[in-house]
Amino acid sequence: MTYKSMRSFAGGLIVAASMCGAVYYFGPNEADNAQAVEKPSIDEMKSMLVSEGYVIHSEEEWHEQEAAVKAAKDSAQEKEKPEEKVEEKAGEVKEKIIYRTMVTVTPGMTSIDVGKALERAKIIDSGMKFFNEVEKQGLSKDLRPGTFEVESGMTMKEIISIIFK
After folding, report:
1. H or E stretch including 147?
2. Which parts of 18-151 are beta strand (E)?
3. Does a structural domain hold residue 60?
4. Does residue 87 sit in the same domain as residue 131?
5. Is the distance from CB of 67 to CB of 110 less than 8 angstroms?
6. Is the pTM higher than 0.70?
7. 60 vs 56, 67, 159, CA distance in Å?
């Protein structure tokens, strides 16, 4: 580029920048034209909410209603207690349910996986307790691949002796 064309280009940039600045500073200001929003009073807000279908209560009324609901729940629970005692007596007569399942141990499974499978089958209460017992006995590396039949009536040691070497 020659120095004359460079000078013309720079002059054009200056003219364009000054025109943009003039419009920005001297143009209409939208903030001046904005109307001041008036906050409605409490009575106006209440009337607007009631007209929209909302129910308005003071804190005292709200606490009274909560207490009434709580009292109703308590009375309903008291009525249910005699029924629960009858159900408990009937439950005592029932025999204990024993779950029996086939657990398949594949290569690559860990004692945690076996514990989770036994927990899902309702054989043991906690898979982590099973894992901790296996770790305590030092059998975590002695897991045998295969299919094993276990029952919920078995003790933890019996289950471990069946599944581990």
Report:
1. strand 146-151
2. 100-105, 146-151
3. yes
4. no
5. no
6. no
7. 12, 11, 61
Same structural domain, 129 and 152:
yes
Give the containing element (helix H, strand E) for 30: helix 30-33
The answer to whether position 20 is within a domain reads no
Number of C-beta neighbours around residue 130 at 10 A: 24
Instruction: Count structural domains, the chain.
Output: 2
Q: Judge whether 134 and 140 are in contact, CB under 8 Å.
A: yes
**Do 90 and 104 belong together in one domain?**
no
Token pair recorded at residue 89: 């007596």
DSSP result, 61-77? HHHHHHHHHHHHHHHHH
Q: What's the length of the chain?
A: 165
- pLDDT band at 29; cut points 50, 70, 90: confident
Could you tell me how far CA 154 lies from the centroid of its own chain? Answer: 36
Query: Domain residues for 113?
Result: 100-163
Decide if 159 is inside a domain: yes
Q: Over 70: is that where the pLDDT of 90 sits?
A: no
Q: Could you read off the pLDDT of 60-69 as tens digits, one per residue? A: 988 999 999 9
Closest CA to 153 of 96, 74, 95: 96
